[in-house]
Amino acid sequence: MEMPTPSPDIIARKSRIVARLSDALPADAVISHEAETRAYECDGLTAYTCPPLCVVLPSTTQEVSDVLKICHAEGVPVVPRGSGTSLAGGALPTADSVILGVARMNDVLDVSYEDRVIRVQTGRTNLSVTGAIEDDGFFYAPDPSSQLACAIAGNIAMNSGGAHCLKYGVTTNNLLGVKMVLMDGTIVDIGGAHMDAAGYDWLGLICGSEGQLGVVTEATLRILPKPEGARPVLIGYRSAEVAGACVSDIIKAGVLPVAIEYMDKKVIEVVEDHAKAGYPDCEALLIVEVEGSPAEIDEQLGIIKQIARRHDPVELREAGDADEAARIWLGRKSAFGAMGQINDYMCLDGTIPVSELPFVLKRIGELSKEYGLGVGNVFHAGDGNMHPLILFDANKPGDLETCEALGAEILKLCVEVGGCLTGEHGVGIEKRDLMNVQFTPEDMEAQMRVKDVFDPAWLLNPAKVFPLDASAARRAAIETAA
Amino acid sequence: MLTPRSEEELSDAIASADGPLSLRGGGTRGVAREGTVLSTAELSGITLYEPGALTLLAKAGTPLAEIEDALAAENQMLAFEPMDHRVLLGTDGTPTIGGVVATNTSGPRRVQAGACRDYLLGVRFVDGTGTITKNGGRVMKNVTGYDLARMMCGAHGTLGVLSEVGFKVLPAPEATATLVYRDLDWQQTAALFASAMSSPFEVSGAARLPAGAFFDDANAALIRLSGFEASVAYRTDQLAKRLEGVVAGPTEVVASNNTRNTEIWTSVRDVHALADPTKDIWRISLKLTDLSILSALGAEDEIVLDWAGGLAWAAVAPGTDVRATLGAFEGHATLVRGSADVPRFHPEPVPLAQMAKALRARYDPKGILNPGLMG
């Protein structure tokens, strides 16, 4: 992975840039000492690190605007940062960039249960949005695994999903309005508590733009009344093919579960050692959850169990109470942590058509043997969002490179069968150089035109998403910054 | 009229155009503009349908009815329930799926399921220079690169002409029931909708028809529940009990075996109640708690509410500027048909209008795709 050479000119001007930012912000909002900027040298993709020029932590939209005006005038790249949980390197700095963290902006600004919306500052964590309204029977639906830590700002930047998005959609389906600061400091308001924003679908563009179009400081989010109840069922199968056929049959039967999660044998074994969730010993395990009143849940689970039995399961277990439900979910929720305890791993995020699941799992198994690295699979089967976990040893020379090469092969496979490189984590730097696999130069040119409109100087998070050669001409202005 | 039969022909037609093009799907919204008509009618056909993956792809000119028939055969549907404009606007032609996407047309189920843009998985389009572009695809979760599919949805063709669109589809409900409440004022209507929508009973439609539209004598607020038979019966009962404390009623429950449910909700979706050729038609996006601003429009018998109060259709005297009448509010008003000398779309704040102009300049540098329509 390559990053652009930092501009020596910008680095030479560090003290002036820091002084200008310090004039505009409270004393404790600018971090420029090397010992302290190191805390911001990476995000959740820890394989790559680089301390930034400096870090700013504004507390208001106006301060964000002031910061961006200064950076715009100085020609300094800005890397926006939510909580720094990106798995794709979305918040990785360069040595000539300013990190703009929104962590201090975490207030709830407004709640309207009549209009079913909440307005928050975007440094607020995903889970604490629900925390502010759950006593009144409401919740915010997108639930990425990192929801305890990840910020709404990052959710918007990456268009985050989660286990329950099969029913409730991802961030873009739940975002109604934003207050956003453009790179030149202009503050814009888009959408609001009403259902559809006017004009072009700016919100659709901003969601998933990986911090390259603007810094979102406030968000109006759709909130939903909590369902009466939810209940999972656990189904074990002898093969991926059978599990895939079961998923397809459930969907065809007209049931829409809130989640259909999948784990393979490797993950089950590790999870059992770690969390002792009582999972069966089998090749493929599904967790299917439905919502509603007790009678409605019975009705839906009745249909699902009937379909599941047709495919001759190794085990079929319905949660009898809240404890049993928690035990069924326990293993799935601790899967990533458990895998991390036994090994270093790289988590992929490609999406495939659900009908291709058995073929893709078989191919991943073959590729795993070919490259000599283990791969565990744990993912959202209902929507085809795979999460292959490639196990490697970070201390073993060459292992990371082998792992990345295997990862690239698996992602190419996802694209070949009609899918995409990333379903919910984002491109960042991790999948940047694979964009050519999915898009023609014309397709990428069409996307880069959007950034030209929002950020003509290409200063916001410039070296991400698009392969460096594709964006080189547009970024040239930074490298020659006066 | 240009009627390209392939994406390549569409590309050639746009690349060689030297004047304005008036883009046409089915021509059912009666908005033909100056210039040579470019029709997508010959770009037709479902290209992929996998019921087990809830995925359907079709060329832009495919008639909506063809798609709905194919889905119905598998007990599935377009979740966002797109409207058919023909009765309201007195037009003919055949609604196409490309037209639905270009206008982000979404019906009553919007309140539960979301809009057209929420179900769009991907698009292929030809921009104003003739360049063929793909964005998104056929999978349900995709954050690879920028979301141009949503950008194209609701852009009314001004950034490119759609050639193919892909959707996530949903299972069609087994049963539908409707709770009917009569003669409510704006405040009571807002209270009814707010309580229904904040219940856990998964309302799939909340609308209000004016007196005489489907129910005589007085306006009718309608709450729809959809799903499996037993579940609909349970939720209808529970919701009616919950709403007893809000307004009197329900005056009627249209049970799930009654075919009137389909007629009622088709009437809501297609705004049949306002099909009066002598009136101007406006479409107002607002929030439920602002519902009472509609009283400034006067005649309550010429307003149809949908989306639990999030959308109001109004039939007004020719030449009326509804934006001026309503004053400032959180939302926007679109002139769907009429003679008022105002822009069709609500004017945007300066920075957004400038960005919109810059976006058009990038995707349609010749300024030939429905020029002037979006500003």
Question: Could you give the topology of this structure?
Answer:
The complex is a heterodimer of chains A (482) and B (375).
Chain A: H1 8-12, H2 14-24, E1 30-31, H3 34-37, E2 54-56, H4 61-74, E3 78-81, E4 98-101, E5 108-112, E6 117-121, H5 126-131, E7 138-139, H6 152-158, H7 165-168, E8 175-181, E9 187-191, H8 202-206, E10 215-222, E11 224-225, E12 230-237, H9 240-252, E13 259-264, H10 265-275, E14 284-291, H11 294-310, E15 315-318, H12 322-333, H13 335-342, E16 344-347, H14 357-371, E17 375-380, E18 388-392, H15 399-416, H16 435-438, H17 441-454, H18 468-479
Parallel strand pairs in A: 2-4, 3-4
Antiparallel strand pairs in A: 1-2, 5-6, 6-10, 7-11, 8-9, 8-10, 12-14, 12-15, 13-14, 13-17, 16-18, 17-18
Chain B: H1 7-16, E1 21-24, E2 36-39, E3 46-50, E4 55-59, H2 64-72, E5 76-77, H3 86-89, H4 97-102, H5 110-113, H6 116-119, E6 120-126, E7 132-136, H7 148-152, E8 161-168, E9 170-171, E10 175-182, H8 186-197, E11 203-209, E12 220-227, H9 229-244, E13 252-254, H10 260-269, E14 280-285, E15 303-306, E16 311-316, H11 322-326, E17 332-337, H12 350-363
Parallel strand pairs in B: 1-2
Antiparallel strand pairs in B: 3-4, 4-8, 5-9, 6-7, 6-8, 10-12, 10-13, 11-12, 14-16, 14-17, 15-16
Structure explained in plain terms:
The complex is a heterodimer of chains A (482) and B (375). In chain A, 37% of the residues lie in helices and 18% in strands. Chain A contains 18 helices and 18 strands. In chain A, the strands form four sheets. Chain A has a seven-stranded antiparallel β-sheet with strand order 15-12-14-13-17-18-16, with helices on both faces. Chain A has a five-stranded antiparallel β-sheet with strand order 5-6-10-8-9. Chain A has a four-stranded mixed β-sheet with strand order 1-2-4-3. The model of chain A has no long low-confidence stretch (mean pLDDT 94). With 375 residues, chain B is of the alpha+beta class. Chain B folds into two domains: 7-171, Uridine Diphospho-n-acetylenolpyruvylglucosamine Reductase, domain 3, CATH 3.30.465; 173-364, Vanillyl-alcohol Oxidase, Chain A, domain 3 (3-Layer(aba) Sandwich), CATH 3.40.462. Chain B is built from twelve helices and 17 strands. Chain B has helices at 7-16, 64-72, 86-89, 97-102, 110-113, 116-119, 148-152, 186-197, 229-244, 260-269, 322-326, 350-363; strands spanning 21-24, 36-39, 46-50, 55-59, 76-77, 120-126, 132-136, 161-168, 170-171, 175-182, 203-209, 220-227, 252-254, 280-285, 303-306, 311-316, 332-337. In chain B, the strands form five sheets. In chain B, strands 3-4-8-6-7 form a five-stranded antiparallel β-sheet.
